[in-house]
Write a structure and sequence with these properties.
alpha+beta; two-stranded antiparallel sheet
Length: 91
């Protein structure tokens, strides 16, 4: 269901019953990692997280690790950050 390396790949699911009786499967929300940061990247205006992730983590799809390392639930939350914390690769 999720691509390999996704933050949701190994978090698991649970089931809920809606008021009309329909059973739905829900993905658990992953907890951010508490890994220390290796340093910071000064983000240029318009610079995309996937490019920053590719540069430091060697994987453009690992942009979510930048979000976790900066306590941002969604990538857009980092848009206002001038400095992006860089977590260890694969954290």
């Amino acid at each position: 269901m999720f691509f390999p390396g996704s933050r949701y790949e190994k978090v698991g699911t649970y089931q809920l019953t809606r008021p009309n009786g329909t059973l739905i499967t829900v993905t658990k929300v992953p907890l951010p990692s508490n890994q220390p940061l290796l340093g910071y990247h000064r983000r240029l205006e318009g610079q995309r997280l996937d490019l920053i992730a590719n540069n430091y983590l060697k994987d453009a799809t690992a942009f979510w690790q930048l979000c976790d390392g900066n306590n941002a639930v969604v990538p857009d939350a980092l848009a206002a950050h001038n400095l992006i914390g860089i977590p260890a690769k694969g954290s």
